[in-house]
User: Which sequence fits this backbone?
């Protein structure tokens, strides 16, 4: 069960970051010195992914440009002998082979994933939501791939949440299988603490068998007309087991402004080129 392909849905409007996202894709907002989507691309590449399909919509050309070559910039950096920056911009274009698929209507995450069916070509594949930055000793997607290869099944990433978190995420009904591995016996979307099966939430990384596409087609749209991937996974598990993996590491939810700020600060404090000066600045702030 070799996994070579990944899908990154990036077609949304990014309304939680308006007005910054009025003319700029949310996925291109920078966390330190890299756009948000680059963290997902680097995680995928570090997990052995060779081909990445990015699901885009109108106004997302900056994403395509970021991962494409820029000969004029490269020549300028050469002439100025800025070789460190030159290496970085060249490295970005070589992270993977990129494919771009236009989603004409925003019809939910399930629909966005379905757009990549032809690209996937009947293989198992990974899905990475670019709102989430995972800081892990082993890339989060690699952790899922290892479990998927062992169980030859779809695997979703899990994280523990508090009572408030049960209102924000899909929550699974877990059956323990091994260390960090659970069979998903049921799931419910944003149930709240009274109805939650557990404190294990689905948080932005997936490895799917190709049968997920038929499950998505069979999924009824919700009251907003969107196809929820949680509903499709519930259908999939009627045909084959689905597992959850409690990842090892730290997740930064950069999908809203407070999470974005927290992620930026946390990552800055781990960067050797920022940490000392930034930590001193934080100490000097009168809180």
Assistant:
């Amino acid at each position: 069960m070799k996994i070579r392909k990944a899908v990154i849905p990036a077609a949304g409007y990014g309304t939680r970051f308006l007005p910054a996202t009025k003319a700029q894709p949310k996925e291109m907002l920078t966390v330190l010195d890299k756009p948000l989507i680059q963290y997902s691309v680097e995680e995928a590449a570090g997990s052995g992914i060779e081909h990445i399909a990015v699901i885009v919509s109108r106004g997302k050309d900056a994403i395509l440009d970021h991962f494409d070559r820029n000969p004029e910039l490269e020549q300028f950096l050469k002439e100025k002998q800025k070789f460190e920056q030159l290496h970085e911009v060249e490295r970005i274009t070589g992270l993977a082979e990129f494919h771009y698929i236009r989603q004409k209507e925003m019809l939910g995450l399930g629909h966005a994933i379905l757009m990549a069916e032809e690209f996937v070509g009947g293989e198992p594949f990974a899905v990475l939501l670019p709102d989430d930055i995972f800081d892990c000793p082993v890339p989060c997607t690699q952790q899922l791939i290892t479990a998927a290869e062992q169980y030859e099944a779809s695997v979703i990433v899990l994280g523990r949440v508090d009572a408030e978190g049960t209102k924000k995420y899909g929550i699974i009904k877990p059956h323990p299988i091994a260390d960090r591995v659970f069979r998903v016996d049921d799931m419910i979307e944003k149930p709240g603490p009274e109805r939650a099966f557990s404190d294990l939430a689905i948080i932005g990384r997936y490895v799917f068998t190709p049968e997920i596409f038929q499950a998505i087609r069979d999924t009824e749209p919700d009251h907003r007309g969107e196809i929820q991937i949680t509903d499709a996974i519930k259908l999939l598990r009627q045909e084959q087991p689905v597992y959850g993996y409690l990842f090892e590491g730290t997740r930064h939810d950069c999908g809203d402004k407070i999470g974005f700020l927290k992620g930026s600060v946390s990552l800055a404090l781990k960067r050797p080129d920022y940490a000392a000066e930034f930590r001193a600045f934080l100490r000097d702030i009168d809180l």
Remarks:
- The chain has a mean pLDDT of 93.
